[in-house]
Amino acid sequence: MFLRRCSRAVLAMVRPGHRSLGPCVLSIFLLGATASAQRAAYERPPIDYLNADVDDAVARLQQRIDDGQTTLAFDETFGYLPAVLRELEVPVSSQMLVFSKTSLQIHRISPRRPRAIYFNDDVYIGYCQKGDVLEVAATDAHQGATFYTLKQERTERPALVRDRGGCLTCHASSRTQDVPGYLVRSVFADAAGRPKFGSGTFVTDHTSDFRDRWGGWYVTGRHGSMRHMGNTLCKGDDTSFDRDPGANVNDLSDFFDTDQYLSPHSDLVALMVMEHQTQTHNAIAAANYETRSALHQSYEMNQLLERPEGFISDSARRRIQAGADQVVRHLLMCDEFALTDSVSGTSDFAKQFQRRGPFDSQGRSLRQLDLRTRLFRYPCSYLIYSDAMNALPDEVRGVIYQRIADVLRGNDTSGDFDHLTPSTRSELAEILAETRPEFESAWASGAR
Q: Other CB atoms closer than 10 Å to residue 276's CB: what's the count?
């Protein structure tokens, strides 16, 4: 993650008719880098990413359409967007707006016509005004991120078409932890939203410095004295700029026509949750892939070396442990950036997100937000409840829960989890013991 800085700042607010807008825009976007060399591993068994069947939310929606169990209403303004959001249970309050040309439909995106992104725990949907397609990604419990498009044309039976590798040009690289995945990324771009990759890029997640987030995005919300890069354009070739003009913005109507979107917001809290979620999804998928591959290779060697069936080699165990460690670091919010001021959004996203639970007997939930010094009140990701976590092979899932139990008992001396105070560890252990049965088993086994 890097950012090349220049000495002279020349910034202009992104306002319609502003004559001083220059040719450099800083932007963050859901994109990855080319990684054709990385593909071979997950294109072969046991992963077989491009050919294996999937059972994600989008595949299930398409099956309902094909079976005649549901239909998608076509809206004259937004096409299939409202219907798809309803069917996939993606809240409108999650809307975020990005004005950099950093997705499939670059000709439809600009500061005056930003792309809208919506998400829930497992699905991401991209919408462009007058776009040719809706861009959809969903997390399959076994295969990870799967990508689809839906033509924005009225038809009797709409088809969400699964991508067979084209999206991986951008969505499979070291930036997605070497698996097909998601990311939020920052680039420099010109005034039309075209990214200038030569000026440097960096990936954003919950560890990123607040001041390096959201360039190229519109951001609505309050964040006190902290500054970010949203709501601004950079002029000329300069890559350092004044962050004050885009700070603490609640109303985007001066920037573009907000009536052309389902919501007038690009919620700050939704952005923070999404950037955490993307890389945590990737870590879980990477652990899944690595474990399946390690076991597959170990079992093949068993036949060659006449070892007992089911024997797992030491090298395979080390690979499994490494994948588990990365998942634990993401789940327990290691290296999270410490907020120096309170933050808040402008939509109902935070309220709706926190209502979802699950809750323990004291009414506590991993979805409770802090937003004063960190993202979550209890620093353990809600994705620990996800289908992707549940579908991890037993060999790695057990290691993850035992590792979390060891950390919360205070048995880890690495320093990686020093952000978890004794009281926080105790609270997390209590919540997980009531809401995550596998953790309860790991916790009990450690007590013996």
A: 23
Backbone dihedral angles phi then psi of residue 147, each to the nearest 5 degrees:
-115, 145
In eight-state DSSP terms, residue 384 is G
How many whole angstroms separate alpha carbon 79 and alpha carbon 12?
33
* End position of a domain, from candidates 267, 291, 313: 267
**Distance between CA atoms of residues 445 and 402, nearest Å:** 9
- The runs of H, that is alpha helices, within 191-337 are 268-305, 314-331
Cβ 119 vs Cβ 58: under 8 Å: no
Instruction: Give residue 371's domain range.
Output: 270-447
Q: Given CA atoms 163, 165, 166, 170 in this order, what sign does their dihedral have?
A: positive
Torsion of CA 92, 96, 102, 103, to 10 degrees: -10
Per the document, the length of the chain is: 448
Q: How far is CA 255 from each of CA 131, 161, 195, 210, rounded to the nearest angstrom?
A: 20, 34, 20, 22
**Which SS3 state, helix, strand or coil, does residue 186 take?**
strand
Residue 30's pLDDT band (cuts 50, 70, 90):
very low
Q: Are residues 293 and 263 in the same domain?
A: no
What is the full DSSP assignment across 298-357? HHHHHHHHTPPTT---HHHHHHHHHHHHHHHHHHTTTTPPPPSS--B-SSSHHHHHHTT-
Domain count, the chain: 2
Kindly state the DSSP code that residue 6 receives in the 8-state scheme. -
Token pair in block for residue 291: 């474990």
CB 160 within 8 A of CB 421: no
Rounded Cα distance between 68 and 70, Å, is: 6
Domain boundary residue among 241, 267, 293? Answer: 267
229/87 same-domain check? yes
Looking at 89-98, 164-173, 224-233, which range is the least confident one? 164-173
| Rounded average pLDDT over 202-208 | 91
pTM for this one? 0.89
Are residue 123 and residue 254 in the same domain, yes or no?
Answer: yes
